[in-house]
Amino acid sequence: MKGALAACLCLAMAACRAHEPQAGEPPVKVQHLPPTAKDVIEAAMVMSQTALSDPSCKGFGTEPTDKTVGRYLAGYLAELSSPEAQNAITAAVNPGTEGGQAVYVCRLMIRHSQKEDIWSWGVQFAVRQTDGILLRDSIHCIGAG
User: Which residues, in sequence order, are CB contacts of 144 under 8 Å at separation 6+?
Assistant: First the structure.
């Protein structure tokens, strides 16, 4: 089941072409407040074409050319293919503030464990509590391993 989820998410994100967000592009809005795990995963998929401009993302993809949320996450999802590994995709939501606004801090993590090869990488972003709009400039790359 985890492998099927990872494969579907990877395929959906890989199908998107990279581009810079354009003026007038519709905002990303989650369906539930607070966001559910499904909302967090969907928001990450919708943001797949968003450029990784935060310094926390510099050099942390699986390849130096990973310049978008989609390429960054797809690289780690592709590593989940080993049937001997213990892998997971987790989503968490906590209340917080961003630029003085009440937000939900959302985290999507891709975890991998196979003998000594243990890591967890993902993205964190903020969703305004008032209207469910994702703040695109709040995207950070997080993890270790």
Answer: 119, 120, 121
Residue 22 resides in a domain: no
DSSP-H helix ranges across 1-145:
2-14, 37-46, 69-78
Distances (CA, A) of 81 to 52, 66, 77, 97, 108: 25, 20, 8, 36, 18
Residue 23 counted as domain residue: no
Domain encompassing residue 64: 2-14+28-144
What's the total number of domains in the chain?
1
Summarize pLDDT for 44-98 with one digit per residue, the tens.
Answer: 999 999 999 999 999 889 999 999 999 999 999 999 998 999 999 999 999 999 9
Q: Minimal CA–CA distance to 143: which of 116, 110, 115? A: 110
Q: Tell me, yes or no, whether 32 lies in a domain.
A: yes
Position 21 in a domain: no
